[in-house]
Amino acid sequence: MKSIVIKNLPQFQLASTTTTLRSSLLYKNHCSSLRFTTGAKYIRRGKAAEERHKRIAITSTKTMMTPTTIVLDQFITGKFLASLIAFVFLYVLCRSSNDSIKNRSKKNRGHVIAQNDVVVSNLVTEDEFSTDVIIVGAGVAGAALAYTLGKEGRRVHVIERDLSEQDRIVGELLQPGGYLKLIELGLEDCVKKIDAQRVLGYALFKDGKHTKLSYPLETFDSDIAGRSFHNGRFVQKMREKAATLSNVRLEQGTVTSLLEENGTIKGVQYRTKQGNNELRSYAPLTIVCDGCFSNLRRTLCKPKVDVPSTFVGLVLENCELPFANHGHVVLGDPSPILLYPISSTEVRCLVDVPGRKVPPIANGEMAKYLKTHVAPQVPTEVREAFIAAVDKGNIKTMPNRSMPADPVPTHGALLLGDAFNMRHPLTGGGMTVALADIVVLRDLLRPIRNLNDKEALSKYIESFYTLRKPVASTINTLAGALYKVFLASTDEAKTEMREACFDYLSLGGVCSSGPVALLSGLNPSPLSLVLHFFAVAIYAVGRLMLPFPSIKSFWLGARIISSASGIIFPIIKAEGVRKMFFPSTIAAIYRAPPQ
Ligand SMILES: Cc1cc2nc3c(=O)[nH]c(=O)nc-3n(C[C@H](O)[C@H](O)[C@H](O)COP(=O)(O)OP(=O)(O)OC[C@H]3O[C@@H](n4cnc5c(N)ncnc54)[C@H](O)[C@@H]3O)c2cc1C
């Protein structure tokens, strides 16, 4: 009898099993520590079994392999066939596992570009499991949000149309309240090393008079102040910081649509510069931050966009503003002119032109308007630099939009930043609102570990719409109301109100610190806003009654109160009275964390 001992087969089987587990472990370890533990257990078990088999094989070899005793097992053919099948099965398993690991690691390096439908659908399936939040747009709101959610451990996919540094005239003065939010988000270093300037308050100019309004910063750390800078530099810093997080993926691409399924937003469709194909990305939450010209907001809110005016932007070089480290507001004719430093050598000038239509730049009408009508109104210290900037010709325009937040609660998506809510930029409140919103959202999402919990997510998003209101609405209402008060008018009541506003702010004490605390975002209290607004109106009326009231002054006083009410109440109504003044009466804000 011949003895045939097939002792290598079990060892091979174990080795290949171990190899497969080990390679899948390498991938899984990358993905989750839970899987690592499970995989390690398998490996330990595999090794123990391997040792056991080795010992058995050696023992059986020792016992059976005597040169003379050769035992042919009666089931040898069956066992051989079974082992062969097992071998083929394991080989196939091993190959397919390796292929999938190759595909996945290829994706992890971010090199997967859709070449055909198969790859796209692979990408879709992969993304469905690997992204918690998609952010559309990496401007002020999107970049700050990406870093914030990334730091919270969320896997974030940001899709931004243009990742290069932008040269824009928007978002260049961050109020101290906004800077405090930046600190809360851990992003304060993004205003460092960009030649940002500290801003300590405002100077108001009217008909040759001026008044200085300092931010009420006495109770804050010396670092707290406003910051002014090039918007592009600031945004780029935030993008860079977000990109340092391994769980934040920043991709250049233009989102073309939101993907909806049974009323739930499942993700986005987008196009990259390199690929002609439309790509898709899926996540349980999509946050749209595509700015003031948003194409995607329509399904997520009821946009009522108003364009009260247009800002014409210039950069003034090598000049000193009358008040260093201050924003300057000239109560000009027909509307305000803003000036503030954006670097150690440059001053931004924004000239407000009421309405949507501005004099054309190309045919020189704009330059003419700026030189003949605006230049005489800017402070003498910067007039020469203003004319030089007009001559240089780098004139930009931007419509000033206002849009109250009016969300359509939708499963799986929300809007943020200017896509969601806009106000006149006169008071420089947009970035403060966006950053304050991010703080509210971060805190609300924190207890929801699984964003696939659709119901919990939707409830917290509903709470977000209420919780953000008092701060956002105060800043929005102030901007809208102040712009209307600061407009030059032929209406006597409005002219009185404008004059009284300047004089009220010049009184000092609480009359200036109160409104400036509102404007700076340091105390965005709706009640304080209404009180100061009507205090200005009453101050205007009171002055008319002195030294003796007359029928004419009574009549004018009544018109002032009516005009003041006509300015502020429609804005408050659009913002939502209950959410703005009585948010605590809305049940959504008492939401307990999900179990
Ligand atoms: C003239 C002007 C001056 C202003 N000055 C100030 C100021 O001094 N202080 C202040 O606080 N606020 C100011 N604001 C408001 C402020 O600029 C905004 O509130 C702020 O920029 C909003 O940030 P955001 O991220 O929503 O939008 P943005 O900063 O505009 O970012 C939107 C981003 O989305 C990207 N994007 C758009 N569409 C797509 C798409 N389909 N796919 C992918 N990406 C897309 C864009 O490329 C962009 O990067 C000003 C506004 C204006 C109009």
Bound molecules: flavin-adenine dinucleotide
The portion of residues assigned to helices is 40-55%
- How are the strands of the biggest sheet laid out side by side? 6-5-14-15-16-13-17
- The gross shape turns out to be globular
CATH topology of the largest domain: FAD/NAD(P)-binding domain
CATH architecture of the largest domain: 3-Layer(bba) Sandwich
Q: What is the percentage of strand-forming residues?
A: 15-25%
Q: What's the overall average pLDDT, rounded?
A: 84
Number of strands: 18
Alpha carbon gap, first and last residue: 70 Å
Please indicate the count of domains.
4
**Largest sheet descriptor:** 7 strands, mixed
Question: What is the highest CATH level, the class of the largest domain?
Answer: Alpha Beta
Would you identify the regions where 5 or more consecutive residues have pLDDT less than 50? 1-72, 96-129
For this structure, what is the CATH homologous superfamily of the largest domain? FAD/NAD(P)-binding domain
Structural class: alpha/beta
Contiguous helical run count: 17
Q: Over the alpha carbons, how many angstroms does the gyration radius reach?
A: 33 Å
